[in-house]
TrEMBL record:
This is Uncharacterized protein. The chain crosses the membrane at residues 12-40, 144-166, 186-213, 263-281, 287-305, 317-337, 343-360. It comes from the Bacteria. Keywords: Membrane, Transmembrane, Transmembrane helix.
Length: 380
């Protein structure tokens, strides 16, 4: 990846900056933010090809890492926002199922694994948040949740994963061939030669959308509220008493299943990053060991401060503390090691993982308050 001019740098910083920052809006504006992230993921390389002279040879690795990053933020946001326990558990399974598949693929480069472990989580997340726009998702039944997950898996993701990873087809090239051209054909000429066909296709699609709208309007239940784009709109938040008890539950033990999940989450994500990013040479077992040390150190420090009544109310300050601590650990490790440190990759790792750890620590108590592991006092 080579940036050849100041203009290249400007475009690169804007696009990558957006890919870093936009996912942080997912916990607040879940549906709009994840759709924008999805769209930006689809057009970022086109933007680079259109507005820069940079080579994209090294960017694909960072692109994949940023994909994992925004999906991880989406998963962690479910701790804060989701009020349906079964939907949450389903999303957790779907997220880790895909993450394990990506890890296996990066270790083996066996492409069918991406078909066996499809990315159902992303569209399931979008489906849940689309429901939440007008209805209370707490009313969703297990049957409805399972049907939605199965439909996304079978009818959307399996064909899509096959198309992308097995057949390795390019949608643009396929459309051009259907219009009688070649991948090198100009769009203007193809459209001009197929105006009637394109108009007929759009008419059929429009009619299909109209009848689908009529069907859904007739069969869907009455909406519970107006359109809710913010996560907090029409969502019952835990009370202060519930949050306080959840934090006490969280503070009670350092070595618990939350620590195990955090190590598993960050460890698997880091393994993917390490296999994707150019120049990364760490082994998976070494990564898991290092992550376990990092996360345990972070968690121990957080619990130590919390038990003494010192909590960080600002998310930004919390992130900066975690970032400083993790960067310090990386620096210490580099001092104790004879191997050269790739500081660009190290910074990329530390920033993304510090964001993930910070969000996990801040949203986990909300989930514990909403779905307690021990009885909570009745509302006053």
């Amino acid at each position: 990846m080579e940036l050849n001019s100041p203009a290249d740098w400007v475009v690169f910083i804007i696009v990558v900056g957006l890919r870093f920052l936009l996912p942080l809006l997912i916990p607040i504006f879940p549906l709009p933010a994840i759709i924008v992230c999805l769209l930006l993921d689809g057009v970022d390389q086109t933007i680079f090809q259109s507005f820069t002279t940079m080579s994209l040879d090294g960017y694909q690795g960072y692109d994949k890492a940023l994909d994992i990053y925004y999906l991880t933020v989406a998963y962690i946001s479910t701790f804060r926002n989701w009020v349906n326990s079964y939907a949450f558990r389903t999303s957790r399974f779907l997220y880790y199922y895909r993450l394990v598949g990506v890890v296996l693929f990066e270790l083996t480069q066996f492409r069918p694994l991406l078909l066996i472990f499809p990315n159902v989580f992303e569209y399931f997340f979008i489906w849940y948040e689309a429901v939440r726009l007008l209805w209370n998702p707490a009313r969703l039944t297990r049957r409805a949740i399972l049907i939605a997950a199965a439909a996304i898996w079978i009818f959307i993701k399996l064909p899509q994963e096959y198309w992308i990873h097995i057949a390795q087809l390019d949608a643009t090239d396929v459309v051009k061939r259907l219009l009688g051209g070649t991948p090198e054909s100009a769009w203007g000429a193809l459209i001009a030669d197929n105006v009637v066909l394109i108009a007929g296709f759009l008419l059929v699609v429009g009619a299909g959308c109209f009848f689908l709208y009529r069907y859904l309007r007739a069969h869907l239940p009455p909406r519970d509220h107006g359109i809710a784009l913010r996560a907090d709109d029409n969502t019952e938040r835990p009370t202060d008493a519930q949050l306080a008890l959840a934090r006490r539950t969280w503070e009670a033990r350092i070595f618990d299943r939350d620590l195990v999940e955090k190590i598993a989450l960050v460890g698997l994500v880091t393994v993917v990053f390490a296999k994707i990013l150019p120049g990364a040479t760490a082994t998976p077992l070494g990564i898991i060991f290092d992550v376990a040390l990092f996360i345990t150190a972070n968690t121990t420090a957080s619990h130590f401060l919390a038990r003494r009544g010192r909590t960080v109310t600002s998310g930004i300050v919390h992130f900066l503390i975690v970032l400083t601590m993790n960067y310090g650990l990386v620096w210490l490790g580099s001092m104790l090691s004879d191997a050269a440190t790739n500081w660009f990759n190290a910074t990329f790792f530390v920033v993304l993982l510090s964001l993930i750890v910070t969000l996990f620590d801040r949203f986990q108590p909300v989930h514990l308050a909403r779905f307690p592991r021990q009885p909570l006092p009745a509302r006053g």
